[in-house]
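ARCHIVE CARD
Drawer: 12
Card no.: 0347
Subject: one protein chain, sequence and derived structure
Cross-reference: see card 0346
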Amino acid sequence: MRILALLLLALFLASCGSSPRAPGRPTQAGPSPDDPRILRQCLGNLSALGVSYQSLPDRQFPNGCSATGSVKLVAVGIPVTNLGALKCGLALPFSLWVRESVQQAARAWLDGYVTKMESFGTFACRPVNNQAGNRLSEHGRANAVDIAAFQLADGRRITVKEGWNGPDANVRRFLRAIHGSACRRFNVVLGPDANALHHDHLHFDMGRGPYCR
């Protein structure tokens, strides 16, 4: 019995010296979005939605910039200007947001239909907020998109810059509705309430989040 008690004590002390595992924390990181299997599944989901796209070759740039696992969206249901390389993992929720959230909000608040969207672009090899010394922007990974304006079938043009705090209450509600729906699809969403640098566009990315402002 004494020997058994000593063995149990040794096991107990050994367990006390081990590192605790945080509840719910995975022991290994999940697969990268550039993993060929994940990328194939993402591209298949885009095709299943009826989205027209072009797969782009992987590219690496100085200063850590890259455009890997990316596509160029050709047709997502609404023409969107100035779209360049987008990681598939961003292109998929963006396509769903364009097709579903934007049109739903336009019908609800503008009694209209969006016929074109204007973007400030996607890939750009630069630091956050274009400020030297900041960490690399998600734009530098083809992992972000900026949306600035919406053209309606009746000729109206809604801009984030003029409409976010503009005089038309329904325009304000429309813009906040699409901002709110974006927060449910993207990891990071920034708009005019985030800071002065986003006074004229909505920024979406799939970087570290969640953050919605």
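Annotation on reverse: The domain at 34-212 is CATH 3.30.1380 (Muramoyl-pentapeptide Carboxypeptidase; domain 2). Residues 1-29 have pLDDT under 50 and may be disordered.
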